[in-house]
Amino acid sequence: MPAPVIIASGGANLASLRFALQRLGCDAPVTEDHGLIEAASHVILPGVGAARDAMHRLRAAGLVDVIRRLRQPVLGICLGLQLLYTGSDEDDAECLGIIPGQARRFSQSARLPVPQMGWNAVRKVAETPLLEGIVGEGYAYFIHSYALPEGPQTCGVADYGGVFSAMVQHENFFATQFHPERSARFGAAVLSNFLRI
Amino acid sequence: MVVKGVQFRNHRVMGDIIELARRYRDEGADELVFYDITASPDGRTVDRNWVYRVAEVLDIPFCVAGGIRNLADAETVLNLGAAQICINSPALENPDLIEILARRFGSQCVVVGVDSLALARRASGDGGGSKGGSTGGATSSDVGRQDGEPPTDTDYVVYQYTGDPNRSRTSGRRTLGWITEAQARGAGEIVLNCMNQDGVRKGYDIEQLARVREVCQVPLIASGGAGAMEHFREVFERADVDGALAASVFHTAAIPIPDLKRYLIGASIPMRPPEEE
């Protein structure tokens, strides 16, 4: 039985993630305790709000090196995906630097409001255990203003005025730009696949 | 309990909230908005336990509207599992609240709900009657426009306290100006409820929504008036909204959500398809 933990990266909004894991049979504590995080079978790095604030909180809790050194499967969600990268244009934030790349802001237009808020199709571009057993496109719920361009770590993309990374994978670090906990059956399948890694 | 009104009056009890949440989840609704319509006019502290119970069963985003008057109210609701909070009357009383919430939670969490009334038009010169909103109450021949003229900022006014028929009144603000200001203050989404259309199932107010679309750079959700599948198609195609909200036709199952989605996808309007069994 997996014993995941959720890193307390600040911001509200973790109840829906905890409930989604509960529906999969896991009771995941929300914690910033180094020992608990290091001992967990799976670690989830959620993120709501601004990159700089989130990094400030991780630094204050001494978690930056703890996260970088994790060897068990880690799942970044939404801002959590961006935090795994080198940096973000949002307030020029320096992030964890686990994956090379820079989050860029969507260019705003009347046709494509920013933030992107809503459902979008996710297309697989590389094999990943996160998409195991999922055939064809999945629809996922996105809520973000910044995104990573497609890169070598990208395994799923979505299109919002251009293709961006919807799912990435680098060694034991996985991440989704969408919210699997709010993405109906597709999201539940992704979370369930993650817990099986 | 969930209630649904007709033009914001005479709320009828629509069934247990958790049961409805489950039903809409299974039917493939993309997002749910829960209006605690009594919360704001009363100015009381409301029991938010239901938000937690809803979050337990929902695997789609939901938004809570009503009675969110400060940072603490918003934080409570978001911590209980809501994806977004929607503020309406409290934002009109204290526009700074939009900035405070956006700074703390990010614009994406902050929806501003706007209850907008289209003022009746002046009869045109040939004596023809007004064909626009017949509103009762807020008609003003001074600001109403002639039939056929394009709508301007003076044609729409923002109402507040609409949850309580006895307190519902104009806020003194114009809809287009208020939506522009709300975005500048950090609103991440606008739900425009066209009051003239609310609950009467005659279609969305396409003209008003298209006018608002021109000034709205954040996601715009249409509300008020859905009565047939064609109305949804029309509002996406002609007012270019990002979402269409409806209550009566879904509560009564007059329009099954999977049928509606198949119809809209068939009309080339992009959306998440209904889940296959």
What does this structure look like?
The complex is a heterodimer of chains A (197) and B (277). With 197 residues, chain A is an alpha/beta fold. The model of chain A has no long low-confidence stretch (mean pLDDT 93). In chain A, strand 11 and strand 12 (163-170) form a beta hairpin. The longest helix of chain A has 13 residues, at 184-196. Chain A has helices at 15-23, 34-39, 51-60, 64-68, 79-83, 184-196; strands at residues 4-7, 30-31, 42-45, 74-77, 85-88, 93-94, 99-105, 116-124, 138-144, 146-147, 154-159, 163-170, 173-176. Chain A is built from six helices and 13 strands. Chain B is of the alpha/beta class and 277 residues long. Chain B has eleven helices and eleven strands. Chain B has helices at residues 17-27, 39-42, 49-57, 71-79, 89-93, 96-105, 175-184, 206-215, 229-239, 248-251, 257-266, and strands spanning 3-6, 9-13, 32-35, 62-65, 84-87, 110-118, 156-160, 169-174, 189-194, 220-223, 243-245. In chain B, a hairpin with an 8-residue loop joins strand 7 and strand 8 (169-174). Mean pLDDT of chain B is 83; it is low at 123-144. The interface between A and B is large, with 35 and 38 residues.
Write the topology of this structure.
The complex is a heterodimer of chains A (197) and B (277).
Chain A: E1 4-7, H1 15-23, E2 30-31, H2 34-39, E3 42-45, H3 51-60, H4 64-68, E4 74-77, H5 79-83, E5 85-88, E6 93-94, E7 99-105, E8 116-124, E9 138-144, E10 146-147, E11 154-159, E12 163-170, E13 173-176, H6 184-196
Parallel strand pairs in A: 1-2, 1-3, 3-4, 4-13, 5-7
Antiparallel strand pairs in A: 5-6, 7-10, 8-9, 8-11, 11-12, 12-13
Chain B: E1 3-6, E2 9-13, H1 17-27, E3 32-35, H2 39-42, H3 49-57, E4 62-65, H4 71-79, E5 84-87, H5 89-93, H6 96-105, E6 110-118, E7 156-160, E8 169-174, H7 175-184, E9 189-194, H8 206-215, E10 220-223, H9 229-239, E11 243-245, H10 248-251, H11 257-266
Parallel strand pairs in B: 3-4, 4-5, 5-6, 6-9, 9-10, 10-11
Antiparallel strand pairs in B: 1-2, 6-7, 7-8
Helix pairs in contact in B: 1-3, 8-9
